[in-house]
Amino acid sequence: MESHHKWGIAFIAAGLALEILFPVLLVFDTILIVVGIALILFGGREKKIEGVS
Fold first, then answer.
1. C or N: which end of the chain has fewer Cβ atoms within 10 Å?
2. Distance CA 9, CA 6 (A)
3. Has residue 47 been placed in a domain?
4. What's the domain range around 18?
């Protein structure tokens, strides 16, 4: 498992944990979850770009 996957899972877990513990922080939780999903989906793109050039 690559580091961006680990960080993505960590951000999603932190966002979900904060959502459960502190529902008032809805915006912050949502941002953490979105960043985690983006890391998982788009994290390995730089390797593909470097391989082309």
1. C
2. 5
3. no
4. 3-40
